[in-house]
Amino acid sequence: MAANDVPCCESMFWVYLATSVGLVAFAGLMSGLTLGLMSLSLLDLEVLIKAGQPNDRKNAEKIMPIVKNQHLLLCTLLICNAIAMEALPIFLDSILLPWTAILISVTLVVVFGEIIPQAVCSRYGLAIGAKLSILVRVLVIVVFPIAYPVSKVLSQDKKQTLTPVAKLDHENAGGGGGGKSIYPKISIEPGGRKRIYQKISIRKLHI
Fold first, then answer.
1. pTM over 0.85
2. Inter-axis angle of helices 116-131 and 11-38, to 10 degrees?
3. How many CA atoms lie within 13 A of 194 on its CB side?
4. Measured at the alpha carbon of residue 200, what is the angle toward residues 198 and 206, in degrees to the nearest 5?
5. 20 neighbors 85 (Cβ within 8 angstroms)
6. Buried b / exposed e across 93-104, counting CB within 10 Å, b at 16+?
7. Beta strand 183-188 with 194-199: parallel, antiparallel or unpaired?
């Protein structure tokens, strides 16, 4: 379409305007979920499930299956966010002048698509992620053909860049070393106090 080819106040003008607002909201939602969900480690969720408050425990149980595959989740949210941000200027360019569309789209994306959503989700990421868990599952299915191959590449790259301790854990857990894995343990002491510790086992070296 040519620039500014939808006259003001016609029916299509309002359709394009509503679509633009929806794209900004969707991009902000994806940005906020990326920060809120990816900041929750599996250990954090395990602690909340075992010893958190009732609401936190319920929210953590909803989020855990989604966060387990972190690379797939990350790719899904970033792809959806990119689609929304790339589509926004197309719709704005149809109802505004080109320079105005660029200026407004950048402003909307920065303020309402990045700053505000991330500020909110950094504080309420657990609750928001739990309430939108169904939406996230749907998005994972929709972009699965694109997100899954990319997530597998990231998983392979992670294995190749393991730290020495992580390499030892990987070898002991499944690499034929026969030793025990390095893994987090959570115990609840009498009185409700929580203790989180690391159990580390290192194989004997035969000289």
1. no
2. 80
3. 13
4. 175
5. no
6. bbbbeeeebeeb
7. antiparallel
Q: What is the dihedral of CA 7, 8, 11, 15, to 10 degrees?
A: 100
Under DSSP, the state recorded for 191 is: T
Q: Are 64 and 149 in contact (CB under 8 A)?
A: no
Dist. CA 111–CA 139, nearest whole Å: 24
- Angle, to 10 degrees, between the axis of helix 144-160 and the axis of helix 133-142? 90
Collect all residues with Cβ–Cβ distance below 8 Å to 151 and sequence separation of at least 6. 69, 71, 72, 74, 75
Task: Return the residue matching tokens 């609401």.
Answer: 55
Give per-residue pLDDT as tens, 65-121: 888 888 999 999 999 999 998 888 888 888 877 788 788 888 888 888 888 988 888
Reported as a pLDDT band with limits 50, 70 and 90, residue 137 is very high
The number of C-alpha atoms within 13 Å of 198 and in the hemisphere containing its C-beta is 9
Q: How far is CA 23 from its chain centroid? A: 18
Nearest-angstrom CA–CA distance, 185 and 174: 19
Phi, psi of 72 (to 5 degrees): -65, -40
